Amino acid sequence: MNGAEYLVSFLEKKGVEYIFGYPGGSVIFLYDVLGRSGLKHILTRHEQGAVHAADGYARVTGKPGVCFATSGPGATNLVTGIANAYLDSVPLIAVTGQVNLDSIGRDAFQEADIIGITMPITKHSYMVKKMDELPSVLEEAWNVATTGRPGPVLIDMPKDIFAGTVDSQVGLEKKYSRKVPLKNGLSEQLDKVVAALHEAKRPLVMVGGGVVSGQASEIIREFVNYTKMPVVTTLMGKGAFPDTAENCLGMVGMHGMPAANLTLNSSDVLIALGVRFSDRITGKPENFLPETTIIHVDIDPAELSKNVVADIPVVCDVAKFLTEMLSRLKKKGLEFATKEWLQEVTIFKEKYPLLYEKEGGLKPQTVIEEVARQVGDKVVVVTDVGQHQMFVAQFYPIGKTRNFVTSGGLGTMGFGLPAAIGAAFGKTNEAVALFTGDGSIQMNIQELATIANHQLPLKVFILNNSCLGMVRQWQELFFKGHYASTLFDSNPDFVRLANAYGIKALRAGETDDISEIVAEAFRLPGPVIVDCAVCQGENVLPIIPPGGKLNEMLGRWKGEAHISRIS
Amino acid sequence: MKCWGGGKVKHTLAVLVENRPGVLSHVAGLFSRRGYNIESLAVGETDDSSVSRITLVVEGDAKIIEQVSKQLNKQVEVIKVNDITEEETVDRQLLLLKVNADIAVRQEIMQIVEIFRCRIVDIGRRSLIVEATGDDAKIQAIIKSLQPFGIMELVRTGRVSIVRGQK
Ligand SMILES: Cc1cc2nc3c(=O)[nH]c(=O)nc-3n(C[C@H](O)[C@H](O)[C@H](O)COP(=O)(O)OP(=O)(O)OC[C@H]3O[C@@H](n4cnc5c(N)ncnc54)[C@H](O)[C@@H]3O)c2cc1C
Ligand SMILES: Cc1ncc(C[n+]2csc(CCOP(=O)(O)OP(=O)(O)O)c2C)c(N)n1
């Protein structure tokens, strides 16, 4: 068996179904084997498309995404996608070809030190330098990507490793890790959590991306039903607890729901589950909830007290934590009297609903609301990065875990289209709705060819405001309306562009019946592009201005004509 | 207001790592990209040739040191991180120093060398090379005493440390 065959059979044994990739000289042996194997290779039109597609696939399935690229430019084209998966803790296996072993370090044709480049943005990057290392490297890499806090790994394979022979005997030898785990007093910490909850008058649960990756969305519902606490989510936690549940206030943070931010601000005990307290939520960490007792549960010890000091840090898988907590609470028969607190929360909701001005042109929020109304949880929702992303977070309620795909940590424009491709391959029984901007979609527009190729049921809503809306908004609010390099005067005609790729396309504007157009998009089989000409000047509100606190949101409040600060 | 106690203190971290190529650059890279400063670093094989030990001296408050240790611990090749700052340790650095040494001052320099129990390892026409081992304080003191003669060149290693007793 040669190295390429070994790699392919290894991936088959792990249950991998799809590889997203792009061929080249150093992986030509690999592609020769791949083409004859049971693995399905999805040829994207750029390596960045391949890595984001693998990422999108992983997010909707929970299985690691796998992508292949050739050495040099192929490998460096993966970099943004790897960083994106790293910041959002997505399990990903990137295999790159490398020049022959004896050429390494000589600036050979298409040589790039991809290990050196990616080490800071992977859980680990491996180079296979000897044939007999291959089996153990693959096994270890797979484990690293998928266990603990998930994340990307990169395996760099010189061309001669693909061609060389693997001794199957060596393959059986298992390498063990000598890592000495940190001490963990879980039981004591759980006791402290129970005590803190017992004292709490205004407890709150914050659901983060760790609840998605920890497959804890069932158990968390049980926990919340039992304790009757209100729930807020982060952007990455969206869907892990249904937005539609009565206790759920939605997303917190810079562009969070007003009631969610106010509830967070008033809480006295916060149970943060699988969140990493990003600056989009904490603002200045010193100012973040100084009076609140923070219980922080995370599988990665390095997250605890990294940004925000945890009063009760708990290193634990979130599902395990919730199971243990429920059994302790039930054993003690602890009751939770949250009725008054829930009333207070309801008042926040009634007093500060999320509003927008519906008149004056087609609003991006209207398009999103209409799609949500018509197809709701029946589709996977994917976003790109910008204002439209935040509008989706605010106006599209998500009811199912792994049904919402967005680039949170790196905020990578161009993520949406290829990630939606990965999502479509991951959830073959659902359609995919992608919301993107006229800026973002042009960053990986070549992938229209991939969706045309596979006739994926992908409905792409371009919320086309002829500008880089998110940046334009900041220039309006914080740079006196000096719109430097954010307004586009020469966008392509996206409908004709889609047609050129052989994709059906619709136009939506101020005078069109948006509900009919949305219905048509979902009625038509296969991919459909909907170019929505939305208002250029729309802003994402509320917004916590830089350095502001949770209750200092700028927004459009009930009964007020102008934007103002809440307090 | 919640905060971390304590000001900046120098910490000595003993880090056991897999002895593989590239490990040192990973560890050093981690420090630079997370914005931590390495004051000194020494690396070498242990009694087990597949394991190296990196002795790091880092300055920071409790919060930074905790983050440094946890981030180090996350690296696949790191086996164990020990903060030995509070332990009873023996610390050593090695110093090699070339000093101006005309006939007129040679005697004086040799006396200083004697006092500090270091050694002269090379004699040139106008210079001497002094070798010294010791902890930070001793090395500093030697440098200071020889400074007036004119130091031509100076190299020193990072600190290596070992915990006293049976551990
Ligand atoms: C334009 C823009 C605006 C944004 N605005 C907002 C905003 O207003 N509000 C907002 O919330 N975000 C916002 N974000 C996203 C933000 O940047 C972060 O990506 C997000 O807040 C991080 O979510 P999280 O804390 O849930 O962490 P994630 O990045 O999802 O991290 C998951 C955490 O869970 C842990 N974990 C993983 N598995 C487990 C397990 N099994 N058990 C326990 N723990 C586990 C991990 O170690 C990690 O600490 C915005 C992004 C963009 C691009
Ligand atoms: C690759 C990349 N480059 C730049 C940015 C900075 N950025 C954030 S949002 C944004 C504008 C996005 O414009 P568009 O996709 O049209 O969406 P809109 O905000 O108009 O909804 C920009 C430029 C980014 N996030 N990613």
What profile does the largest beta sheet of chain A have? 6 strands, parallel
Largest sheet, spatial ordering of strands of chain A: 2-1-3-4-6-5
Strand content of chain A: 15-25%
Helix-and-strand structural type of chain A: alpha/beta
Largest sheet of chain B: 5 strands, antiparallel
Summarize this structure as a short list of keywords or feature phrases.
heterodimer, A: 567 residues, alpha/beta, Rossmann fold, 3 domains, six-stranded parallel sheet, 20 strands, globular, B: 167 residues, alpha+beta, Alpha-Beta Plaits, 2 domains, five-stranded antiparallel sheet, four-stranded antiparallel sheet, 4 helices, 9 strands, elongated, binds flavin-adenine dinucleotide, binds thiamine diphosphate
Layout: helices, strands, pairs:
The complex is a heterodimer of chains A (567) and B (167).
Chain A: H1 3-13, E1 18-21, H2 28-34, E2 40-43, H3 47-61, E3 65-69, H4 73-76, H5 79-87, E4 92-98, H6 114-118, E5 124-127, H7 134-146, E6 152-158, H8 159-163, H9 168-171, H10 186-199, E7 203-207, H11 209-213, H12 217-227, E8 231-233, E9 248-251, H13 258-266, E10 269-273, H14 279-282, E11 293-298, E12 312-315, H15 318-332, H16 339-351, H17 364-375, E13 379-383, H18 387-395, E14 404-405, H19 416-426, E15 431-437, H20 448-454, E16 458-464, H21 469-478, H22 494-500, E17 504-508, H23 514-523, E18 528-533, E19 554-556, E20 563-565
Parallel strand pairs in A: 1-2, 1-3, 3-4, 4-6, 5-6, 7-8, 7-10, 8-9, 10-11, 11-12, 13-14, 13-15, 15-16, 16-18, 17-18
Antiparallel strand pairs in A: 19-20
Helix pairs in contact in A: 1-2, 3-5, 3-19, 12-15, 13-16, 17-18, 17-23
Chain B: E1 9-18, H1 23-34, E2 38-45, E3 51-60, H2 62-74, E4 78-83, E5 89-100, H3 103-115, E6 119-123, E7 127-134, H4 136-146, E8 151-156, E9 160-163
Antiparallel strand pairs in B: 1-3, 1-4, 2-3, 5-7, 5-8, 5-9, 6-7
The structure holds flavin-adenine dinucleotide and thiamine diphosphate.
